[in-house]
Amino acid sequence: MELDAVVSANASTFYHRYFKNSAAADKSDPRKVAITSVWVAAKVTDDARRLREIVNSFEVLWKGKESKLMSMKSYWAVRDDVLLYEQSLLRAIGFGTA
């Protein structure tokens, strides 16, 4: 997955701010926070990507090119976690979600 440099920079910033400012940072899964950071950064910079595309890209990074696509059941579990992390990430970076 090719991302614009601005998306990568924003994702990195969001990731670090999450672990600096979030009260739940000690209990958080760094991999899921990374997926969430990339997804939010892509949305913020109008380079929106499907969450499934981002999750599959991270799977290849972690498991190597021989990795298979994850099952729908596994994907939905990751998706549900990422949606929860999205709310925490937005709070940690000070995004007003009134």
Can you tell me about this structure?
The structure is a single chain. This protein is mainly α. The chain has 4 helices and no strands. Helix 2 (30-44) packs across helix 3 (51-63) and helix 2 (30-44) packs across helix 4 (72-92). It is globular, with a radius of gyration of 13 Å.
Secondary structure elements and pairings:
Elements: H1 5-21, H2 30-44, H3 51-63, H4 72-92
Q: Tags for this entry?
A:
4 helices; 67% helix; mainly alpha; 98 residues
Rg value: 13 Å
Task: Please state roughly what percent of the residues sit in beta strands, choosing from under 5%, 5-15%, 15-25%, 25-35%, 35-45% or over 45%.
Answer: under 5%
The residue-averaged pLDDT reads 88
* DSSP, total strands: 0
Termini, distance in Å? 32 Å
Please work out how many helical segments DSSP would assign.
4
Decide which structural class fits the backbone. mainly alpha
- One letter per element, helices H and strands E, the order comes to HHHH
Molecular shape: globular
Can you tell me the residue ranges where pLDDT is under 50 for at least 5 consecutive residues? none
Percent range for helical residues? 55-70%
Biggest pleated-sheet summary? none
Summarize the structure.
The protein is an all-alpha fold and 98 residues long. The protein has helices spanning 5-21, 30-44, 51-63, 72-92. The chain contains four helices and no strands.
